[in-house]
Specification:
alpha+beta; five-stranded mixed beta sheet; two-stranded antiparallel sheet; 3 helices
């Protein structure tokens, strides 16, 4: 459905996934991740400070294709959403960007190595 290395807006991702023109949820459009059925879409910022002064600690090792990702500030690994991501119930689709306002590059489908 997505081509690795290609760029997408959040709305384009949502439209491709749902095959509809319906409005994406707030979480899908405005936060670090959103879910559609058993698929979780991670939108990760790398290596920049956003307009609100947030510096994102996420890292992407391009050579090894390994992402170090941090959830939202209040997220804990024992929450149901994160448990389902960690145990493989949800499939993580990983998107990243390196500058504010740009589209999101599809990095691939993730696999949780450790939490």
């Amino acid at each position: 459905m997505f081509k690795q290395g290609s760029d997408y807006s959040r709305r384009e991702v949502y439209k491709l996934v749902t095959q509809s023109d319906s409005q994406p949820s707030f979480h899908f459009l405005q936060t670090g991740y959103g879910r559609v059925n058993e698929d979780m879409f991670l939108f990760m910022n790398f290596d920049y400070e956003d307009g609100g002064g947030h510096i994102f600690p996420n890292k992407f090792n391009e050579k090894e294709k390994i992402v170090t990702w941090y959830g939202k500030k209040e997220t804990k690994s024992n929450q149901p959403l994160m448990k389902n991501l960690i145990n493989g119930t949800y499939t993580p689709y990983c998107f990243g960007r390196w500058e504010e306002g740009s589209k999101w590059t599809f990095l691939g489908i993730g696999k949780i190595l450790k939490n």
